Amino acid sequence: MSNEIYEKLEICRKSILQKTNFKPEVAVILGSGLGEYASKIKIEQIIPYTEIEGFPVSTVVGHKGQFVFGYVKEAPVVIMQGRVHYYEGYPVTDVVLPVRLMGMLGAKKLILTNASGGINTGFHPGDLMLITDQIMSGIPNPLIGANVEELGTRFPDMSEAYSKELIRKADEIAEEKGIKVQHGVYIGTQGPTFETPAEYKLFHILGADAVGMSTVPEVIVANHCGIKVFGISVITDLGVEGKIVEVTHEEVQKAADAAQPKMTTIMRELINRA
Q1: Which residues of the chain have pLDDT under 50?
Q2: CB-based burial of residue 143 (10 Å sphere; 0-12 exposed, 13-18 middle, 19+ buried)?
């Protein structure tokens, strides 16, 4: 199985290299409602996922489904404008394939964004949360099975899944720009259902501050590949007792869109200081 995974990655890598020889230093994954950031960089090349042999294609509204290669000031970046999720029916090895692929293309740092539900009672819709740690709930660990030796060790350390150095730099940027940020633990679920009140209560007991349907498996493989990770969540709704309301994907996208200017400011500066 490990050989199959690596062979598929090689097919994807060669397919991209036929279209561009751009070598990114920073990889960025844009979550629900956050895809417009890619239009704000100096674009060198756009490659739709459908043009990459063997690459999984996002089926979720709000995820354009393309790689954008370019520069944020002087920093060469590759941006995923849309990700694939486990709930779309893909095996978890396909969900994390893009992260591994971007590492093979040259990326040494990964910035992930997502829209999530707030569990911490001190959070409010529109808040930005810098992710300090994570909990996996329901999604299979993407490293189960034979280890892909070409990418990393059998038992990767996860004591600093999210880079403390990148969090510190993001805090400095937020303070300089007058942007309020929260800090917290992100729990990743299978989806596609939003959480029940009982699940929110359980996740709070477990120590989570926000919940979403992505990010966690991607962070695991990034650490496996030796890529430093920074994660930031837009709190789009609340899973706090007494404040839980019916949520739709469209409302999540709208709330994430409203938070884009603040997130864009932090990401732009962080990419150049990373």
Answers
A1: none
A2: buried
